[in-house]
Prior knowledge:
Layout: E1 22-26, E2 31-35, E3 41-45, E4 50-55, E5 83-84, E6 112-119, E7 128-136, H1 142-147, E8 152-160, E9 164-173, E10 179-190, E11 197-200, E12 206-209, E13 215-218, E14 229-233, E15 243-247, E16 250-258, E17 262-267, H2 269-274, E18 288-302, E19 307-315
Antiparallel strand pairs: 1-2, 2-3, 3-4, 5-10, 6-7, 7-8, 8-9, 9-19, 10-18, 11-15, 12-13, 12-14, 14-17, 15-16, 16-19, 17-18
Bound molecules: 6-O-phosphono-beta-D-glucopyranose.
Amino acid sequence: xxxxxxxxxxxxxxxxxxxxxxxxxxxxxxxxxxxxxxxxxxxxxxxxxxxxxxxxxxxxxxxxxxxxxxxxxxxxxxxxxxxxxxxxxxxxxxxxxxxxxxxxxxxxxxxxxxxxxxxxxxxxxxxxxxxxxxxxxxxxxxxxxxxxxxxxxxxxxxxxxxxxxxxxxxxxxxxxxxxxxxxxxxxxxxxxxxxxxxxxxxxxxxxxxxxxxxxxxxxxxxxxxxxxxxxxxxxxxxxxxxxxxxxxxxxxxxxxxxxxxxxxxxxxxxxxxxxxxxxxxxxxxxxxxxxxxxxxxxxxxxxxxxxxxxxxxxxx
Length: 316
Ligand code: BG6
């Protein structure tokens, strides 16, 4: 190898300062990428404030994202963590959200990057970074504003540490009439083999089984997946209890919720995956499970000036 004088350094560092998280834009300022000194990284698309990638220090991707996912703002991202707001699915009988598209407009709106805050310390292993994103009635496009004419502001924060990825949301009613909404962090987790996982932490919870005529059921024991699965656990019992995914007995994900009472468990399996144009590879359902923390049964009512806060923390 030729050793060049004046060759660029891999990382610009100031002598004496501990290594710091790096944050930069890419793809024409449409994505924000944060990298910790440990090598852990996260990427967020301003379209939807969708977390599109979360990699550990070894470069291993932890979220599932379809090979055919659109990242150009033409449709919601099939994978990562799209944000569902202010309606889960569609709700033709709920006047305020009846006109909105499936899963609302948060995942299809362009968010603003509000900035980063990072904490550095002597060791690389405990530095972290928080990226803040904003969406409000002032920044919504006119078409969406007409469909949902409320005055609101949202701050969505994505926090990366070497141990976990956190997403948290603060929704404020800035208007003079109550707002009713649902919210959900539609997290696609990457796993090795859907037939080998178990989801625990939802035992004893009531759920609606969307693939079995919307019947009301109660979860007994761990969840295993052997076909199309679409369940709304509400309320997911004991909100302090993590939802844990194990694969052949080993914990691969641990999800802790804060003020998000419901959990949706979704896997499209063969037929549904085959019918989704943006789902590739078609057998990709074997490598994903959506564990979606939110508040989707009934409506959260927010009085003028009130704020709702909810969060999830994902680790292994
Ligand atoms: C889940 C729903 O949250 O999202 C499913 O429970 C739905 O019913 C899935 O199919 C995917 O929705 P979309 O709009 O991203 O295709």
